[in-house]
Amino acid sequence: MDTLANYLHMGGYARFVWPAYGLAALVVGGLLLASLRDLKARERELKALQDSVPGRRGRSRAASEQE
User: Fold this and answer.
1) What distance in Å separates the CA atoms of residue 30 and residue 33, rounded to the nearest whole number?
2) Domains of the chain: which residue ranges?
3) Which of 27, 45, 58, 59 is least surrounded by CB atoms within 10 angstroms?
């Protein structure tokens, strides 16, 4: 247990190291959420554009390539 306590203490620098890890985790999490939100928006935009093309509605790519 003493080894874990020494590790968590980080040689006296724990008050700098752990907040830095926490901040980095928050930034990465925020970027992940923003990226996922943007991905969903782009997918909706692509679907709307594909649905606006005449003759494309309800047809799969394979079916349109066979013609």
Assistant:
1) 5
2) 16-50
3) 58
